Amino acid sequence: MMARPQTYSYGKGRLMIGDGATPEVFVAPCGFTQASLTIDKSTNSTAVPDCNDPDAAIWDETGVTTMSWSMQFQGVLAKESLELYEKVTFSSAPVNIRFEIVGAGTGAGTPDKRYAGSAHVKMQFQAQRGELFQVTIDLQGNGELVPSSIQIAP
User: Which pTM does this prediction carry?
Assistant: First the structure.
């Protein structure tokens, strides 16, 4: 008998954007229907020969040279979130963000997962006749993305 994996519904995740104040306040934009997180690596490969058998096929060894991350969120353009999107998009400074997933953490008292980092924000909205405006928010990481297990406040 197969054991069922634990899964997470879309509603268990949320993007939080910081306001840059001290103490910083994070706001969850409204209206997203899609979310993605990409963690990327740049690598270099080196062919390492077998010293005992010079005629053997040579295996590549791969090293990581850089890491980067990005997130993308899409959904309806909610009036309640437009001012926040404009503020972080028109700024040339990165903003602090958090992406949280309820129930994805590990450890006693820390059942939730948070990915925190600094990002530059790009915005696109589009619509066509007979439809609502849609928005795409792209976050390009500015440095490390730090995962942690936490207790998300309700």
Answer: 0.88
